[in-house]
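Amino acid chain:
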Amino acid sequence: MVKKMFMMIIAVTMSSLAASDSIPTLSIYEIQHTENEDGSGYYDGRTINCTGGIVIHKWSRGKQRVILYDPNNADGWGGILAKGFGTPFADANVGNWISIQNVLVEDSEYTQGNTILSVDEYSTVTIEYENLPLPEPLVVDVNDVAVVYEPDYETCYVTDHRAEKYEGMYIQVRNVMVGDVNVGSHIDNYSLEDESDPNIYCWASDYMNIDKPPDPNKYLPIVQSGQHFCSVSGILEQYTKIDDGWDYYQILTTTIDDLQIEQEGDLDGDCDVDFDDFAILSRNWLIGTK
């Protein structure tokens, strides 16, 4: 039923966009999807109408930015960053479905490999629907977004760009431990090691996190080397500056709640509270009371 509702949203939204012959109307999937080995898209430098998606995060860093999510592509190619100077998204709240007309697609070395909808004075942001449900994070393997870091050479790179399908999406890795901190091109990254194999790790950063301290060199207090997390969620961003030795993806947390430690009541240590924990509690309820 929910999927059907969103398919109807797409249909209505597309019909509401007055596309000319020279300006195509595209979904997030059509903009993001690529078969290029380096992850580059097909629409860099093109002006388009975007059918849009649900605003799942909004923040400002130089430019006002929003992350848009299309639930019709929940397994990949369903998220994108839109940004612009001033306050182009002043009326767009988290949970709104917005479309953007007459917007420039950027996907080049100047965007560090990210596909971005660049809103300017010629663009129109339209709120199509309000109060839509927000997505749960898409659970992925650490290996799906893993990097290789060479600290002696101050470089970090991916062995391939299979993570490209998750760019701009809200994803989650589970059962990870913080490894190295103060690493990366801007020394704001930290590694998240797969606890089943510490040789496999991905990178994260908190600069998009609205709960982060204002000091750019400080992490959230909970982020310390050796800290175990049941899960870490965030928006996946690409960072590519080949000439400087950088080509990687990083998970950008959005709030402190994106970093989950063991929950109270988690008696079996599997990072959730369920009937298995209740069974342990029941078996031990009267022990020591006689």
Notes: The first helix runs from residue 2 to 16. The radius of gyration is 21 Å. DSSP finds three helices and 16 strands in the chain.
